[in-house]
Amino acid sequence: MICGKLVHLRGIEREDLQLIHSYLNDEEVMAWARARPDHTVSMEALEKEYELELKGEDARRRTFIIVENESGKPIGWASIRWHGTHSTTADIGLALAEKDKRGKGIGTEVNHLLTALAFDQYNMHKVELWTLAENKAAINSAAKNGYKIEGTLRETVFFNGSFHDAVLMGITKDDYEANKRGGA
């Protein structure tokens, strides 16, 4: 378990797939997280996607359930991914599925927990994330944790009949260490 002040992150269990399934099939939850027009997923496809991770055999991703400390209830999910066993760059992502929990600093804390995990435990050199350019909350949250915008991917995501820009953000281990020391 990875503990913060507002939430903690715990590894997914098979029973969590039903919860993730409901999140992935919720139009409002997926409005900020999708990368394709059809965000829906079947339970069978979800089980197949997470099978290796549930067995502890996925060498490229760790998925967590975000649990609110105060209530003990799951409120979303998060992940850290890397492209291979020798990769030095990780990609993080999170979704707060419980809409009433947004805007309370939880996303910023989850971002911090994932970033610390990537650098302090997985010894990554760089951590990246992407979000839709109009997702100002995610951009601000990442910036609070030292991430910088590295580029805009113009018209790279298509849904609801139009193309949308995405923003790539990143932080290096040196920047992270400077932030920890209060230098940035």
Mean pLDDT: 91
In the CATH hierarchy, what is the architecture at level 2? Answer: 3-Layer(aba) Sandwich
Task: Supply the number of helical segments.
Answer: 6
Strand content: 25-35%
> Tell me, what's the shape?
globular
Work out the radius of gyration. Answer: 16 Å
Span between termini: 28 Å
Order of helices and strands: EEHHHEEEHEHEEH
Beta strands, count: 8
The structural domain count equals: 1
Describe the structure.
With 184 residues, this protein is α+β, with helices and mostly antiparallel strands. It has a single domain (2-180), classed as 3-Layer(aba) Sandwich (Aminopeptidase), CATH 3.40.630. The chain contains six helices and eight strands. It has helices at 16-24, 27-30, 43-54, 106-121, 136-144, 173-180, and strands spanning 2-3, 7-11, 61-68, 74-82, 89-96, 126-132, 148-159, 162-172. The protein has an eight-stranded mixed β-sheet with strand order 1-2-3-4-5-6-8-7, sandwiched between helices. It is globular, with a radius of gyration of 16 Å. The two termini are 28 Å apart.
Topology:
Blueprint: E1 2-3, E2 7-11, H1 16-24, H2 27-30, H3 43-54, E3 61-68, E4 74-82, E5 89-96, H4 106-121, E6 126-132, H5 136-144, E7 148-159, E8 162-172, H6 173-180
Parallel strand pairs: 5-6
Antiparallel strand pairs: 1-2, 2-3, 3-4, 4-5, 6-8, 7-8
